[in-house]
Amino acid sequence: MQFGIQPIYWVLINSVVSFIFLFIISKVLGKKQIAQLEFIDYAVGISLGSIAAEMAINSEIPFYYFLIAMAIFMFLALLVDIVGRKCTFFKRLMKGKPICVVYEGKIDYEQLKKSKIDVNDLLAMLREKGFFDIEDVAYAVFETSGELSVLPKGNQRPVVAEDLGNDKVKTAQLSNVLIVDGAISYSGLSEAKKGEEWLLRRLNAKTKDELKKILLATYDSEKDEINVHTKDKA
User: Fold this and answer.
1) Cα separation, 124 vs 121, whole angstroms
2) What is the pLDDT of residues 133-179, one digit of tens each?
3) How many CB atoms lie within 10 A of CB 108?
4) What is the DSSP string of the chain?
5) What sign for the dihedral angle of Cα 22, 31, 95, 81?
6) Which of 37, 66, 122, 130 is the most exposed place for a label (fewest CB within 10 A)?
């Protein structure tokens, strides 16, 4: 036991010291650690937390070893930011680059695979941004922070009832998802009150195997239209 301190007091002292040191590091690194978390920031944050936790309960290693380790991680994170501002290649190497998963209204299947997300993930992220119909989206960019930036089509800007020139506003409706990554969504067909034969007929397909090239298909009941996104690169 270092300096003859009782274990309970050692844990208390080290916990307070590690907390204060982490607070200082967070001030030095800035709000980016929580506001725009990127992969390198995530790795540094996890490492600092692990070191601080080990420091709080490990009395066998001098406490200043842990402080040195946390300081090294802090300076490395700062170094990455500084060099990244000067060298674009290094920044892309360490933090990656944004990926355009929806381009000119169409899902880019190859870019979607690079981003390590599937169609359902994309649809969920679009809903979080307020876009419940992918046909309203012109461009969607998967940022290095894991956020999705969305540019709506020109006719999909936010409007109010006064913009319509009348008092009658149509009730908003969700599009029915019929196919996801080549597989039929029977729940979507049920919600649209349609059947498999109807779907095959509308898509000019004889068998379900012909649908495997379709990445996403949604049905607009108001317009009676099926919007199709294929896996083929546009």
Assistant:
1) 5
2) 888 898 999 887 778 989 888 665 556 555 555 555 555 566 788 99
3) 21
4) -GGG--HHHHHHHHHHHHHHHHHHHHHHH-THHHHS--HHHHHHHHHHHHHHHHHHH--SS-HHHHHHHHHHHHHHHHHHHHHHHH-HHHHHHHH---EEEEETTEE-HHHHHHTT--HHHHHHHHHHTT---GGGEEEEEE-TTS-EEEEE-GGGS---GGGGTSS--PPP-PPEEEEETTEE-HHHHHHTT--HHHHHHHTT-SSGGGGTTEEEEEEETTTTEEEEEESS--
5) negative
6) 130
